[in-house]
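Retro notes, structure queue

What went well: the backlog is down to a handful. What didn't: a couple of records were mislabeled last round, so from now on we paste the full input next to the output in the thread. Example, using CRP/FNR family transcriptional regulator from Seleniivibrio woodruffii:
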Amino acid sequence: MNKQEAVKLFATGFFGSADPELLKVLDTICRHRTVEKKSILFVEGQEGSTVYFLVKGSIKLFRTNDEGREAVVHFVRSGEIFAEILLQLGLKYPVTSMTLEECDLLEMDAMKLEEVISKDPKVSMRLIGALAKRIKYFVNLIESLTVNDVRARLVNWLRNQKKKESAVVRLPVPKGELALLLGTTAETFSRVLKKLQEEGYIEVQGRDIKILKNLD
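Corresponding output:
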């Protein structure tokens, strides 16, 4: 995908408009590039000024404790904006970002993007809505990690990912990476997945999980 197509995708997805004037402005503040697998875009604690839009690929956002252990915060998928916290607080990056495959990105200066957003109240409301969804996601994630066992965490994740029009959920990342997000090991994750399949709840084919009946 070329830069013009990527900018249009961002404009329609985030701003809800493909107005030629908006596209022209965004084209001047966006940098389009392709990044190799396992590239670090920014590091936890690093001062930053760039907001990102993932055109294609998948990215892991994680934090690392003093012992070097990773805690996965979120998997960014195609069509998502991330590091948008800089638009509101102008702080350091709170997480580290690593590409899980070759990724197609738009990079934007946070201050310039904020200027574009501030000129349109509707766009500002879209940003607030996006941040509210992100907060709700983290609240649910914290609740799941502190209250539920691994089976319940996986079931909740599958329920949240399932779309009404399809019974198939595609894992956005390898099983080992998803296990980190759910606060468990790859081995335990695989055992729980196998158990759900043996009980007739799901059917697993590679990264595709078909839900056969209501999960409980």
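Agreed that this is the format going forward. Reviewer comment attached to the example: The helical segments are 3-15, 20-29, 85-88, 110-118, 121-147, 150-161, 175-181, 186-198.
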